[in-house]
Automatic annotation (TrEMBL):
SUPFAM superfamilies: HAD-like. This is Pyridoxal phosphatase. It comes from Lactuca saligna (Willowleaf lettuce). Coiled coil: none annotated. NCBIfam families: HAD-SF-IA-v3, Pyr-5-nucltdase. Pfam families: Hydrolase (PF00702). InterPro entries: HAD-like_sf, HAD-SF_hydro_IA, HAD_sf, Pyr-5-nucltdase. It comes from the Eukaryota.
Amino acid sequence: MEYENGYQQQIPTSKYECLLFDVDDTLYPLSSGLSTQCTKNIREYMVNKLDIEETKVPEMCATLYRDYGTTMAGLWALGYEFDYDEYHSFVHGRLPYEYLKPDPVLRTLLHSLPYRKVIFSNANEAHVAEVLHRLGLEDCFEDVICFESLNPKNQIINSDSPKSSVTGYDDVSKVSDVLPESPIVCKPFENAFQQAFKMAKITPHKTLFFDDSIRNIQTAKLTGLSTVLVGCSQRKKGVDYALESIHNIREALPELWELVEKLKDGRYSQEIGIETRVQA
């Protein structure tokens, strides 16, 4: 829009274009109990479907999660081959989703933010859809990057792309040379983030990333994302903001609403020289 003095209207802008969200233990609290049940289902799958000795499962499950981001990715790295959909059906399909209730507070917060909002989860599409449905957030996000997005069927595995250690994560980076690679792409590995950026057309330095995992947060920071650790109010290395709950977004990041307030109050009009339209 042009004005008589030649100035163009200066629409206020934000440092962010996109808000990128994890799902589990981020959009709802760890206290919901879903994660505990998910771990139980994973262990049952390992015993009942993969014939792994029950006494070894708890430690093995924890180690694979630490080294590979998800137990599933670790199992494939060790040579266990199974159907992805069957695994997700067993692990996520039996979750007590009734533990999750509609969250009108979060829904209002998300709808009040004038930015692109995208989901980025290691979970499968059906699980993400069910969680969003239960929380009443189905229409809050314009795109979903999930397991199927990162691991399309019949994909050609690039053996030159390392997936076995987390860049910058001390506990596992030391053993990156000895761990076998997994064909599964997932957080917290950098290639999963880069793939998500391409799929959702995300500019990292203009994006704010919300996740409950410090490993995911630390990798995200290395890729250029601004980071918000959810579920912990203590800031750690790689964390720009820390929220005890996703409901604390407005208190912790009031700048996200500055654009809304400027547009609402019309303060941006002060940046315009003369507000008389040119009659063409």
